[in-house]
Amino acid sequence: MIDPASLGRRLHALRTDRGLALSALARDAGVSVSMLSAVERGEKTPTVVVLSRIADGLGLSLSRLLAGLETDRVVVRRAAEQDHVAEPGGWHRTVLTPVVPGVNFEWIRTTLPPRCDAGEFPAYAPGSHEFVAVEAGTLWLGVGSAEYVLTAGDSVYFPADATHSYANRGDEPCEYHVAALVMRSRAGRVQ
Description:
Blueprint: H1 4-17, H2 22-29, H3 33-40, H4 48-58, H5 62-66, E1 83-86, E2 92-95, E3 105-112, E4 116-121, E5 129-136, E6 138-143, E7 146-151, E8 155-159, E9 164-168, E10 174-181
Antiparallel strand pairs: 1-2, 2-3, 3-10, 4-9, 5-8, 5-10, 6-7, 6-9
Helix pairs in contact: 2-4
């Protein structure tokens, strides 16, 4: 497991050794200044995607950034430690997976309220994969130019090197899980 305080100290040292202001690294990494600041203070553990962007902004590989920070091979992430993100439009996502050096995998639980469109997401690099499983409600999943309607109990796989979108056009909340193997950061920005 990676200690958030140790990760924060390492990021701060790497940033200052390079003479980068917090805002400059945030811009180069494509993350918000508030996120980067919280990570440096050890208050937040970033997702794999965000951490990969920070590594890119520092000119490092993710494994090199995290070298020596892993303290335990078994990582328990308690519910209180999971990242809960309330998104614009009323939808909510929870990042269930911890950051593990060299593993670009995320497992996210998302709840879309009725009549909510989470929007379109840029493609990951070739070789990336997403698996989606619907727990409750109905999900309208767009992959490239195709759309799939999934109901409770349905699951789908798609190569994540295409733009994709998630929407709930129904009258009931939709809860689904996304397991993503990400080969590198998305082209878009993370807030």
